[in-house]
Design a protein that fits this description.
199 residues; mainly alpha; glycerol-3-phosphate O-acyltransferase activity; membrane; acyltransferase
Amino acid sequence: MDVTLIYAVLIGYLCGSVPFGLFLTRAAGLGDIRNIGSGNIGATNVLRTGNRWLAAATLVLDAGKAALPVLVARYYWGEQAAMLAAIGAFLGHCFPVWLGLKGGKGVAVMIGSLLALSWPVGLIFCGVWLLIAFAQKMSSLAALTAAATAPIFAYVVVNEWLAAATAVMALLLFVQHRENIGRLMRGTEARIGSEKKAP
């Protein structure tokens, strides 16, 4: 295996593992985000603090930390390295070694990765998410639907290699949403806006 591909995965992992949600909530005096709501470090859980601007900042920064290594890897080592950097960033966000492998669920990271790898596919992902979110008022269902359909659009718009990389990220996203999937099947998943803010 080309050593540069290993570098791409490592750079992606290191960038992806930066816990912006944790940093921002602490800086804002809101405590440890891991003690709030679902306990994960992503934007959806940051929103449970009641601070929408902080949640939006987390979303943008989490997307950015995935897009950056993808763009760097593409510039130096090519498209295959860029795809591996995206997977590395996803792994870093979901399983950061410095946080005991307990990170976020990967939605923002997948958005950032797809926008950097192929902006049309990234925009389609966002479009599907928004459509389902507005129609069903469930963030998890919107994310799962967007992730499930993303490999199909990646194949149609770009090629089978991007479809394969996207499928890996989608699978990881499903694993991270396993508790949400259980609640969806039981009909107990919370709807957007129905959850109480953290005290």
